[in-house]
Amino acid sequence: MSEESSFMQHALSLGARGGFKVMPNPQVGCVLVRDGEVIAEGWHDHLGGLHAEQMAIADAESRGVATQGCTAYVTLEPCNHFGRTPPCTEALLWAGVSKVVIGAMDPNPTVRGDGATSLRENGIEVECGVLESECEEQMRPFMQWCRTRRPLVLLKAAIDRNGRIDCSPDEPSVRFSSTESLSLVHDLRAQSMAILVGVNTVIRDDPSLTVRGPDIGPREGPVRVVIDPNRRVPENSRIVTDGEAPTLLIHCMGDGDSTDSGNVERVVLADDDGELSVGRILDMLGDRGIQLLMVEGGADTWRRFLDANKVDVAHLCVSPVELSGEGRAFDESELSDAGLTKNESFDSGGDVVSRWSK
Questions:
Q1: How far is CA 176 from the centre of its chain?
Q2: Could you give the count of Cα atoms lying within 13 Å of 94 in the half-sphere of its Cβ?
């Protein structure tokens, strides 16, 4: 690995420290280098906090290290506009860096090359594209939303050893995945901006669809989205009454385009033929700034997104437990048939978890 790639890899590892706390901003890392040595480092730690470049400069100040003439390695093109913080280009100019090495260019219309251009116009050498694919992958939901205005879709499915997702209808619903697998699910929820289920899942399981465990910082919890064509979500269900996170109910019928009640918003989103298309759902969520949508259940909803060819990544958990009932509800062949490739599989408290992507 070249020296430049090594420094950018370090910046990537720093960016990952932002974890689930930075959304809708991307994870970004930055290192300041002089004479082949890192003199300061920073990352975007949480929504509303310093950007990576600003944190690295502050780190240098706290160490009493001069930044004049150093090189900044940053995983995403520095912004050149005022948002929650001042422009990072101004911070780099103030610090007196002589060169900026950029991993990925920012496709956001408010940046889109303007940061690099501004730096060059002010006499700073700029190099782009170092570990570009790795940087883009770390920021994939942000990148996809900027380019398509649709969220990246993550499908999460859990099945028993026979491909069933539930007990017989005359028996109460039970959780059959391991504690370790449940922890992984909450990590997936934490990295999501919205969690979607079908109305039958709400009626059968009465889920809360909230993040429990991971620290998501000051940002709001994921929006709970329910495909509910005929307004069947019970008024006493948790997602309606608990107020722990916003709830969005998508209907095919109603008195108007949308209505609000406490933490619940109802949206009528039917196509001309009276159906709810996945494309329109994704467009609506994208317009609301949702960058990563987790599709959590059940099997009919998974197939709705798979059949529409809109699943980007998937997380499948297969339990050794055998539920009551007959037939198979789902299996991994449906993921491969939809063009997804298995990247890895591992043990999770006795379950076998596999991760898939396009």
A1: 26
A2: 13
Q: How far apart are CA 105 and CA 173, in angstroms?
A: 47
Residues taking part in catalysis: 53
From 186, 184, 162, 160, select the one nearest 173 (Cα to Cα): 160
Q: What are phi and psi of 76, to 5 degrees?
A: -135, 140
Instruction: Note whether 223 and 193 are within 8 A (CB).
Output: yes
Token pair of 98, please? 């002589």
Backbone angles phi, psi at 158, to 5 degrees: -130, 130
Q: Residue 279, CB half-sphere, CA atoms under 13 Å: how many? A: 4
Q: What is the pLDDT of residues 104-123, one digit of tens each?
A: 999 987 666 689 999 999 99
Residue type, 283: D
Angle at 191 between CA 189 and CA 194, to 5 degrees: 60
Are 72 and 110 within 8 A, CB to CB?
A: no
pLDDT at 219: 86
Give strand pairing partners of 195: 224, 294
- 52-76: b (≥16 Cβ within 10 Å) or e: bbbbbbebbeeeeeebeebbbbbbb
**Residue carrying structure tokens 């090359």:** 113
Per the listing, tokens 């251009």 go with 117
d(CA 330, CA 309): 17
Q: Is residue 354 helix, strand or coil?
A: strand
Q: How many CB atoms lie within 10 A of CB 222?
A: 27
- Give ∠ CA 286-116-105 in degrees, rounded to 5: 40
Helix (H) or strand (E) holding 99: strand 99-104
- The residues, ordered by sequence, that sit 6+ positions from 262 with a Cβ below 8 Å of its Cβ are 243
Nearest Cα to Cα of residue 5 among 88, 101, 115: 101
Find the DSSP H helices in the chain.
Answer: 3-15, 52-63, 88-95, 114-121, 132-138, 140-148, 179-190, 199-205, 238-241, 278-287, 299-307, 333-337
Beta bridge partners of 40: 32
Q: Under DSSP, is residue 280 helix (H, G, I), strand (E, B) or coil?
A: helix
211-234: pLDDT as tens digits: 998 888 888 899 999 999 999 999
